[in-house]
Amino acid sequence: MTEENLKILSFFENIEKYYGCKTEITEGLYSLQESFDNHSTTWNLSEFTLIRSGYRKTGDRMMMEGEKMYFEISAALIVSFKQTGRNSFEFIEKYGDSVFRITKIRFHYKY
Question: Which of 68, 70, 72, 90 has the fewest Cβ atoms within 10 angstroms?
Fold first, then answer.
């Protein structure tokens, strides 16, 4: 298992500490030309209180759930994962030769 895979596993093993916290998910779809360009990305923003999380083995999906909100990340398609701040994380999934989804997660954690 790679170091990045261990970091992803640790993220989901410890996500329970964020239950009850306001969660912001910024999601962008983009087609890679030469490099990632913020201005050529289609963005969506969701905010919810994180209630639960889990892993759906069939389909290899990691999920986060809030009231009237459900969000999944494809574990099999992750090409990059990093912690960008104290309670902020970034996933990049590759859906095709040049189609990517970037997901930025920020937890408003009180501790």
Answer: 68
> Tens digits of per-residue pLDDT, 66-101?
999 999 999 999 999 999 999 999 999 999 988 999
CA separation for the pair 77, 58 (Å, rounded): 14
Of residues 57 and 11, which shows the higher confidence score?
11
Name the pLDDT band for 33 (thresholds 50, 70, 90): low
Whole-angstrom Cα distance, residue 38 to residue 68?
28
Cβ 25 vs Cβ 46: under 8 Å: yes
SS3 of the chain? CCHHHHHHHHHHHCHHHHCCCEEEEEEEEEECCCCCCHHHCEEEEEEEECCEEEEECCCCEEEEEECCEEEEEEHHHEEEEEEEECCEEEEEEECCCCEEEEEEEEEECCC
8 Å CB contact between 107 and 87: yes
